[in-house]
C-alpha cells in the first residue's frame, strides 16, 4: 500500500486514476490545482510515496510544481502525465524533476506498471540479468544498495527513485568508460538517443548531490565534454 497524490484537473481522468489505484490497494488523494499540490508536497508530514502529476494545470503548471518540489529537496518519485506525442513537454517535465512519464490517453496496464516501477524498492527489475550485476557498490564514502534502492552516505540514508537508480546502474556497469547522453537516454528512459534534452544532466546533478563530497567538483560522476559522463568508483 502506498500513499499516492494524484494532481489532475480533468475530473474523469482523476476519478479513473483514483478508482484503479485504490483497487490496487493504494491510498489516493486527488488535487486539481498546481498551487494546492505544491502546498501538499511542502507540508513535511505528508508522507507521500508517489505523485502522479499532470503538466497542464490551471494556474501553477505541473512543471512548476515539480520544479518547486525538487528545489525544496523532495525526493518523492514523480510520474508525469503529458498529452500524446508532445515530446517537448515530456522532456521538460523530466528536466524539472519528473522520474517517469505516461502519455494520455494511457492504457490501465501501462499506468499500473509505471506505478509499480516507481514504487519498487525491494528488488531490481533491470532488463539485464540482475545476478551478473553487483547488488551493492561502494562509491567513495557511500554504499549503494541497488537491491533496496538506497544509498548509505556519511550524512544518512537516501532513497533512490527508479530512474535515479537506473542511471547510476548504467554508469556503474560501464565504469571507466565515457558514456554518451544518447546511450543513457535510450537505456534509462527509453527515449530516442537524439532527443534534445537536458534530462540526463539534471539527473546527474541529483546523483552528485547524493554521492559527491563536493558536488561542484565531482570525482565519481565526471563530465566528458561534448560527450557525456564517466563513472569512477
Ligand atoms: Ca490538465
Structural write-up:
This protein is α/β, with parallel strands linked by helices. The protein folds into two domains: 3-120, Response regulator (Rossmann fold), CATH 3.40.50.2300; 130-231, Arc Repressor Mutant, subunit A (Orthogonal Bundle). The protein is 37% helix and 23% strand. The chain is built from eight helices and twelve strands. The protein has helices at residues 11-23, 34-42, 62-71, 87-95, 108-119, 162-173, 181-189, 199-211; strands spanning 3-7, 27-31, 50-54, 78-83, 100-104, 136-139, 142-145, 150-153, 156-159, 178-180, 221-224, 228-231. Strands 2-1-3-4-5 form a five-stranded parallel sheet, sandwiched between helices. A four-stranded antiparallel sheet has the order 6-7-8-9, with no helix packed on it. It has a three-stranded antiparallel sheet with strand order 10-12-11. Calcium ion binds at residues 9-10, 54, 56-57.
SSE succession: EHEHEHEHEHEEEEHEHHEE
What's the N-to-C terminus distance?
36 Å
**pLDDT averaged residue by residue:** 87
**Can you tell me the CATH topology of the largest domain?**
Rossmann fold
Q: Share of helix among residues?
A: 25-40%
Please count the helical segments.
8
Uncertain residue ranges: 122-129
The domain count comes to 2
- CATH top level of the largest domain? Alpha Beta
Physical arrangement of strands within the biggest beta sheet: 2-1-3-4-5
Please tell me what the overall shape is.
Answer: globular
Q: Strand content of the residues, in percent?
A: 15-25%
The counted number of beta strands is 12
Bound molecules: calcium ion
Amino acid at each position: 500500500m502506498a500513499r499516492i497524490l494524484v494532481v489532475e484537473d480533468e475530473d474523469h481522468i482523476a476519478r479513473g486514476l483514483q478508482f484503479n489505484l485504490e483497487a490496487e490497494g493504494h491510498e489516493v488523494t486527488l488535487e486539481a490545482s498546481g498551487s494546492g499540490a505544491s502546498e501538499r508536497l511542502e507540508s513535511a508530514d505528508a508522507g507521500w510515496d508517489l505523485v502522479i502529476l499532470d503538466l497542464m494545470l490551471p494556474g501553477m503548471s505541473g512543471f512548476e510544481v515539480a520544479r518547486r518540489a525538487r528545489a525544496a529537496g523532495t525526493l518523492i518519485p514523480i510520474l508525469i502525465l503529458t498529452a500524446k506525442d508532445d515530446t517537448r513537454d515530456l522532456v521538460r517535465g523530466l528536466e524539472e524533476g519528473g522520474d517517469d512519464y505516461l502519455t494520455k490517453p494511457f492504457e490501465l496496464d501501462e499506468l499500473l506498471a509505471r506505478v509499480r516501477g516507481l514504487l519498487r524498492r525491494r528488488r531490481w527489475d533491470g532488463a539485464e540479468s540482475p545476478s551478473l550485476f553487483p547488488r551493492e557498490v561502494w562509491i567513495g564514502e557511500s554504499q549503494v544498495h541497488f537491491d533496496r534502492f538506497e544509498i548509505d552516505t556519511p550524512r544518512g540514508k537516501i532513497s533512490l527513485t527508479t530512474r535515479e537508480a537506473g542511471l547510476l546502474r548504467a554508469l556503474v556497469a560501464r565504469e571507466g568508460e565515457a558514456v554518451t547522453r544518447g546511450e543513457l537516454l535510450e537505456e534509462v528512459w527509453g527515449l530516442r538517443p537524439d532527443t534534445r534534452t537536458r534530462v540526463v544532466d539534471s539527473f546527474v546533478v541529483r546523483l552528485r548531490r547524493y554521492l559527491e563530497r563536493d558536488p561542484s567538483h565531482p570525482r565519481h560522476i565526471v563530465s566528458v565534454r561534448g560527450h557525456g559522463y564517466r563513472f569512477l568508483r
